[in-house]
Records
---
Amino acid sequence: MSAVRGVADRDPGLQPERTRLAWRRTTLSSTVAAVLAVKTALHGGASAAGIVACALVCALWLAFLLLAHRRIRALAATPAPTALPPRQAALAVLCAMATAVCAAALVV
Amino acid sequence: MIAFVRNVRLWFAPEQVREEGSTPDYRFSLANERTFLAWLRTALALIGGGFAVDQFLPDLRWGWRVGLALALLAAGVLCSLRAVNHWMRCERAMRRGEDLPASRFPALLSVVVALVAVAMVAVVLLGWAG
């Protein structure tokens, strides 16, 4: 009986699950960007500046991973999760922008 | 521009956002969040494209290669900034019960991507010919 009620309580549109998967996809995208950054840094002999930029990109990727993990846990905690805090959205965007700056340093 | 700066201040002041209007149905907020994430993925894809141009077009002259890569990276930065700005505007509009903000950005971005694609085709064809 409780299993049936559990199904009824859940949002039939599976909105929290879809949002969780969107975070997963975005993490995957940032992984691809980080892998390309490592490839660029190691291509044609690694320089000291290249290694530093590469390490920064990896740190940013880790930060994004933790951010996504936190949000996913918040989504799973309640049946009607609260909206994304603006600070977390800004941090996610800052990660992407800092990755772009490191990329510019690597490419030039 | 001033509206954008005011918006930036709100990114770091969640309690100020919560004072405005009433909380919408959580599903609307989650849909808005997914749209934000989709734009963030677009930005990350543009950044990845910048790396790809640098890595996979080694025959291109240095100026062209770096210029194209930097243009893609700049587009990625713009796209991510716009993602969070638009997300915040939608969130506030929903709280106040207003219409969602209209945006020229998707049209602008598609025109830029189309131009870059045409430029790439030209570069590849000329590269074969020359």
Note: Residues 17 and 75 of chain A are 8 Å apart (CA to CA).
---
Amino acid sequence: MKRSVYKSAMSHLKTSENFNEATYQKLMREIEKQESDGTNNPIQSKELVKMEKAKKKTVTSWTVGVAACAVLAVGIFAINQNGPAKDSVASPSATVQPSAIASEKPPILGKVQVNIDGVISEVSADGKSFKVGDLWVEVTDQTKLGSNEPTATAPSEELLQKEFKVGNIVSGFTSQDVASGRVTADVIYNNMAPAKEEAPIKGKAAVNIEGVISEVSADGKSFKVGDLWVNITPDTAMGIDGPTAAEPSEELLQKEFKVGNIVSGFTSEDVSTGKVNATRIYNNMLPQQ
Amino acid sequence: MYNSFELNESVLKALDRYSQSLIKIAFAYLKNMADAEEVAQDVFLAYLQKRPVFENNEHEKAWLIRTTINKSKNMLKAGWFKSRNPVPENLSYLPREENEVLQAVLALDKKYRIPIHLHYYEGYSIQEIADILQAKPATVGTWLARGRMLLKEKIGGAEDEAFSI
């Protein structure tokens, strides 16, 4: 095999005679440097340097970011504050401090009226003050009673009672500050007694008796329909009475109450007791075959 | 992992064993002996600092060669390297034929030059070169074939004589 000319040429290439020696010394210096630094792992120290650099970069970034935000905030604040100053063309020399603008509110012109509306929960001993909600309202000689509008009718005794009582419904208004919790009424439109409770309905309520007899008493004069026991008394009317009513047939109104019979009628007694006397029985018929 | 003593020992052994190989590879890349030696020194320094762990001597040598190539590439990219005008390496001391062949190889593009160097000087197979250069074996084969063809065109030779560099 022919020897490679290239390999021969490369082998004859002259290199520094002391390359290995110089490199060896360089390496030894590096080793000593590592030992004197107290770290045998230069990679770790490099990583530390990298981390420190990254930390510095992060801190710098944050500082720049915060500074930029601060500049923006100041700029926006300044722009907002300059806006109203531009409007004051008439007095350009009069510079208003931003804090003064913020604290000074425009004066309120005119009266603020607050409605008094509600039910009196408490009345003072002299009867000239009453409490509506959390507000004590005083009625003085200056308080106008009733509406003085031109189209308003004269207040009736019913709508505007003279005496303020607990439970009365009052309405009116005051122009005083309600925040104090006590005001003098300017006007009282109404002071009326609450609507009285409606009287209980009197009269009888008729309840239908309708269904299939499930049980019959031993004497045959009571039967059970659903959960209700129904007594048949001598006062119980049988059949349908009326000018157009036909005579009850034996088929529709049997004399004997039996289990399974279909009954209909009504009672005027309270069914909640579970046992009533039948006022009338219309039908008592056998079940259909 | 090495302890410090073992590491230092292995680096110094590698210096004795592979320094010439690394200098020659760097020279094939940079075409300048001073630069090649500087790169080789940096490679041994990297060995000391990075503390690589090798399976065997071949693995160690392959790592050193790859590091040499990478460091040579970095040097070629460096601004100071590009901006200078180095005096061409004086190879007149070599025999005429060797000088001619070496000059022809150095004149090749580096993508052909390095595989040729690794194959004809280091004796690596196509597969081994592919592993070192992190390329496909077929690609390395193509680089070698084209490099040989270019060298044949430049150096010539008898028609019936097998071309050899």
Note: The longest helix of chain A spans residues 42-87.
